[in-house]
Amino acid sequence: MRRNFWAPSTAIYTADEVRLSNGNSGDGRLSKNERREAAREKARVQRDEQKKKDRRTKWILQGSVGLALVAIVAVIALVLVNSNQPAGPGPQNFASDGVQLSQGFIATPTAALEADADPIPSVHDEESGVLDIQIYVDYLCPICGAFEQTNGAYIESLVANGAATLEVHPITILDRLSLGSEYSSRAVNAVACVADTSPNDFYAYHSLLLSDGIQPEENTSGLSDVDLIELLDIAGVENTEVIAECINDESFKSWVSNSTARALSDPIPNSDVGAVTGTPTVLVNGIKYEGAVDDLVSFQAFVTQAAGDDFIESSTPTPTPTPAP
After folding, report:
1. Which is nearest to 203 in space by CA: 233, 237, 228?
2. What is the DSSP letter of 314?
3. pTM to 2 decimals?
């Protein structure tokens, strides 16, 4: 019986195999040459299919590599654009890299400088008899907190009575102790935002950040930006919406970094003191305080000595030290 090659079967045959089989008038079996030709044809078909697959794979790979290169170029371009952008201005009222406060804690107005511009030192009128107090502070520094909590009320009384001006230079040297949150830098940016928009509220906010129960401890993440914004209302700062946006955007981040670098490398103006080596660094009339930060009597004696006899005659009563609990 002749084999029917068109009947359903699990075998798979090429067109040539079918043609050759149908043309065979024998017992239905392919000859050796026919099998050889069929095998060659089958191999050729398989090679053609593999070539098509290889070409598709090549096109896909080339397309993927092309897209990856485009993405890499875009990222590089973005980095270059950002790195070549200007640092942007620093805050207003910080031309000396510090805020100078006079009687009533009114900030001396100054224009904003570029973040990397050389600061303009404040001018101290030595003939006026008014003390020039300068403080370099990091808001995560526990010693800064101790100095503020011990001597803050005394310094406030001097400024309030017109016996002294206070110039605060916030710097950031303790970011490494805030568990990656860069709290010191964010806090300096926050006070810069206040000085830029509501300068006469600067001292209230500055002293609050160093107050007991508010200042965070080292080796913690510190206050969040939300916390820093909430403290604006507690300190009685005006224009909080604008300042909150400035805090969230870290608008003065470049200035924070550059002003700190200047403080740590340049001599302190209006003094014989070199660069800042730690916080707090406190100077009165250009003389550095070397006493204990938590000893009010010692600091008062230093102020009197630095000021001279004229200050003793014109000074007003000072706060009584608060007994330790």
Report:
1. 237
2. H
3. 0.72
Handedness of CA 306, 308, 310, 314 (dihedral sign): positive
- Nearest CA to 152 out of 204, 199, 220 is that of 204
Q: Which two tokens stand for residue 311?
A: 């200050």
Residue with tokens 């014109």: 314
Q: Which 3 state secondary structure label does DSSP give 36?
A: helix
**Residues 90/255, Cβ–Cβ less than 8 Å:** yes
Q: Give the integer Cα–Cα distance in Å for 221 and 216.
A: 8
Strands 281-284 and 106-107: unpaired
Angle at the Cα of 131 (from 103 to 92), degrees rounded to 5?
Answer: 55
Using the 8-state DSSP alphabet, how is residue 89 labeled? B
- Peptide bond preceding 280 in cis form (omega within 30 of 0): yes
Positive or negative, the CA dihedral 265, 302, 167, 165 is negative
206-254 tens-digit pLDDT: 999 999 999 999 999 999 999 999 999 999 999 999 999 999 999 999 9
Residue 165 CB: number of other CB atoms within 10 A?
22
Given the structure tokens 């009685």, which residue do they identify?
Answer: 236
